[in-house]
Design a protein that fits this description.
The complex is a heterodimer of chains A (about 120) and B (about 450).
Chain A lengths: L4 H16 L4 E2 H11 L8 H13 L3 E7 L5 E7 L1 H42 L1
Antiparallel strand pairs in A: 1-3, 2-3
Chain B lengths: L2 H15 L6 H20 L4 H12 L2 H11 L6 H4 L6 H8 L2 H20 L8 H23 L4 H19 L9 H22 L6 H34 L9 H26 L1 H32 L8 H24 L8 H28 L5 H28 L5 H30 L4
Helix pairs in contact in B: 1-2, 2-3, 7-8, 7-12, 8-9, 8-10, 8-12, 9-10, 10-17, 11-12, 11-13, 11-14, 11-17, 13-14, 13-15, 14-15, 14-16, 15-16, 16-17
The chains are: A alpha+beta (about 120), B mainly alpha (about 450).
Chain lengths: ~120, ~450
């Protein structure tokens, strides 16, 4: 299944914010985590992730700081801020509203699809 | 990791760092990412060399990543145009960024400033006309060029034209006494309003966003740098043309004062606008250096000025000229804060430089407080046009500086997103300056019976 670009872009910021609520993380780990969470359906590119991280940092939703990896390499870690948590809460209610609407409409599609053969039989 | 792969990573790092639109820190971060890929692949059984090749491939082509980064760094937006491999780039560069259209607009702008003289309104006969309209005449060409260059929609072209028309109307509405107070104030404030409208032509649909307005501030700073460079070279040119022919008995003074200077200046502003956009990389590297050299020097000068004011003895009764100098100093302080913001990287950490900036704002605030107290004391003798104008300007600057000082403290204390808040605050005020300038030109003169 190919997830369209627009959908990937729209869900990127809430995913990053939500992953960072589990604690500070860095680029490579975030991409892996997104892949795991989506069962491999979402494969982010670096060209998507890093500009997004820097934008979120600029907006004050996350803060970056230079640290060291387990092997002592220079690595940039990101952590969520209180503004970021507030933004994530907004994202969550927006996505819930969208998902609920979609579920609801699919429920009615299922019902009408179940009803379709009968009306079909009547008109025939 | 093997030594050869280590070398290859270093090479990759250098190549990436040479790309436009990616900062050194961003490359460090990407290198960590690349090494993450390599480690994982080696863990899966690939040899070091193989792992490196696959990792680089996974990271995507360098130009592709660089372009994504340039896009995020919106203040470096122009770099999209120079990044290779972008299908839009050659076309974009070819038909609007070239020198030929800029020269055509410059010639048109030069012709425009001579139109009043052709109908008999010359510098000698109507000096007052030029005091009122020089910025309108001079910057029409720039506004037209920017609108065309940025492919502005008709709506924005009309809005800009309407802005110019309103300012022209306001600037010429009243018959003002040539030796009175109102005419110099009009001459001083019309350019501010014009500057704001040119900003609309520059940013078009992005004028609503802090980023769009910030780009305009950056444009203004670089535009002024180019203008100074052009002016310096022009002085030499004028001396050559003015002096050498006198040796053979030819007088070029008329030609220089009537044609060369006005037309040259009008053309130069268009050329400067073109240079800012076309040769941006040159000045962009200069801006942070200039900011770092001049901010400490201005801070010292401000502190010196405070000492001078304090030493003058009677704080409540300062000399009128000293007050005017204080106002000039405050405008410089605000301009410096704006300029430093444009030179600042998106995620630069707070440092010694911000302390200097805070000192600068603090000393400017002290000067402003002294100036305001003096104006208030003078106003108890009665309102005059000049006092009202100076009071208004000081109040706007005071509010600006108080909030800026508070935001700088937040920045120094490392509050996330505080650079952006400072940018938003500073750029929100730009339309306020324009509105106040219009008030000074349009509302205050009749209030004080100067028309």
């Amino acid at each position: 299944m190919e997830i369209p670009k627009d959908l990937v872009a729209a869900s990127a910021a809430p995913l990053v914010l939500s992953i960072l609520t589990d604690g500070p993380s860095y680029g490579y780990a975030i991409i892996k985590r997104v892949s795991d969470l989506s069962g491999g359906e979402l494969e982010w590119t670096e060209g998507l992730l890093y500009p997004l991280l820097h934008r979120l940092e600029r907006q004050g939703h996350i803060v970056g700081s230079w640290g060291a990896s387990e092997t002592g390499r220079k690595r940039k870690y990101y952590d969520i801020t209180s503004d970021g948590r507030a933004a994530l809460a907004d994202h969550r209610s927006q996505w819930r509203a969208v998902a609920a609407a979609l579920e609801e409409s699919w429920g009615s599609v299922k019902r009408s699809m179940a009803a379709a053969p009968i009306t079909g039989a009547v008109t025939a | 990791m093997s030594e050869s792969v280590e070398q290859q990573v270093t090479l990759w790092h250098e190549h990436m760092a040479n790309r436009a639109g990616v900062t050194a820190e961003e490359v460090d971060e990407l290198e960590d990412h690349l090494r993450g890929h390599i480690e994982q692949l080696e863990g899966a059984g690939l040899s070091a060399d193989e792992a490196f090749l696959v990792a680089v491939k996974r990271l995507g082509s360098q130009s592709e990543i660089a372009r994504e980064f340039a896009r995020e760094n919106s203040d470096r937006l122009w770099k999209q145009l120079v990044l290779d491999g972008d299908a839009r780039a050659p076309k974009e560069r070819g038909d609007r960024a070239g020198w030929l259209p800029a020269v055509i607009f410059a010639i048109a702008a030069a012709a425009l400033v001579k139109i009043p003289a052709l109908v008999g309104i010359t510098m000698e006969t109507h000096p007052e006309f030029y005091l009122r309209n020089v910025s309108l005449l001079g910057l029409t060409g720039v506004a037209a060029y920017l609108l065309w260059r940025h492919r502005a929609s008709t709506a924005y072209a009309v809005a800009t034209a309407a802005g110019f028309a309103i300012i022209a109307f306001a600037a010429n509405l009243y018959a003002l006494d040539i030796d009175g107070d109102a005419l110099p104030m009009t001459a001083l404030h019309v350019p501010i309003a014009v500057w704001v409208v040119v900003g609309l032509a520059y940013a078009t649909a992005r004028w609503r966003s802090a980023e769009g307005r910030m780009d305009y501030v950056r444009f203004t700073g670089e535009f002024l740098i180019y203008l100074v460079l052009i002016a310096t070279a022009s002085v030499i040119l004028i001396v050559l043309i003015g002096v050498i022919p006198t040796f053979v008995g030819v007088d070029t003074e008329q030609f220089i004062s009537q044609w060369l200077v006005p037309c040259g200046a009008a053309g130069a502003v268009v050329i400067a606008a073109w240079l800012v956009e076309a040769k941006q990389a040159i000045v962009e590297n200069m801006a942070p250096v200039l900011a770092r050299i001049f901010t400490p020097l201005f801070t010292l000068a401000f502190l010196g000025l405070i000492v001078v004011v304090l030493a003058s003895g009677d704080l409540a009764n300062l000399d009128r000229d000293l007050l005017i100098a204080c106002d000039g100093v405050l405008v410089v302080a605000v301009a410096l804060i704006l300029y430093n913001l444009t030179a600042r990287g998106a995620d630069t950490r707070a440092g010694w430089f911000d302390w200097i900036q805070l000192t600068l704002v603090g000393s400017a605030l002290a000067l402003d407080a002294i100036a305001l107290a003096n104006i208030a004391i003078r106003i108890t003798d009665g309102w005059t046009f000049n006092r009202a104008v100076v009071l208004g300007a000081n109040v706007i600057l005071l509010v600006n500086l108080v909030v800026s000082a508070w935001l700088l403290v937040r920045l120094i204390r490392g509050r996330a997103g505080s650079v952006r808040t400072l940018e938003m605050w500073q750029t929100t005020l730009i339309p306020v300056y324009g509105a106040w300038a219009l008030v000074v030109v349009l509302v205050l003169p009749p209030l004080f019976g100067l028309t």
